[in-house]
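Hey, can you fold this one?
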Amino acid sequence: MSYFKSRNLLLVMALGLALVLLAIIVLRYRPQSPLQRMERTLPKGVDVSLQDIDYTHVEEGHARWHLVARQVERRAESGSLNVDSPQMDFYDMQGGSKGSLQADRGIISDDYQKVGLRGDVILKNSAGYTLYTDSLDYDQSTQTATSDATVRLVSEGLHVEGSGLVLYPHQDRFLLNADVKASFDTAKMK
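Sure. Predicted structure:
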């Protein structure tokens, strides 16, 4: 009789062990939630990544600027934002167009006071002037944009080229410090 009881006990223990192993297998190989899968796809050091950005910043009921970008990533260690293919439109106090810019990529400081644009930077203003360069840095505290790269400024009847740019966008004024070349066609100028 004791043989029968110990055989039953072994059977119950084997069944219990089989259930525990089944539970471990089910828990280990269950489908992941979409959030867990997405978290693993972020590059190392990136804590937020957004794609297909279309954002309009509004103040006092009027659009101030509009951003379209392929991707924006926030870097955890520096707090900076990396923007892929930014295109921005700027507006005056009444919502009228002031200009636009585009670049291959941009870097925005963690305090949003400094912006660096790199690769095929094009800056247009509503007066018809277009600035072309490979890099442009903007500092909100001084409200100036600077570039050490070659810069071209083009408008109807005007072509200016040089390097060492200091641009004062709120004053509609700029300086070129080196290798300056300019051509004017007064017949085409407004």
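The helical segments are 2-28, 34-41. Let me know if you want another pass with a different chain boundary.
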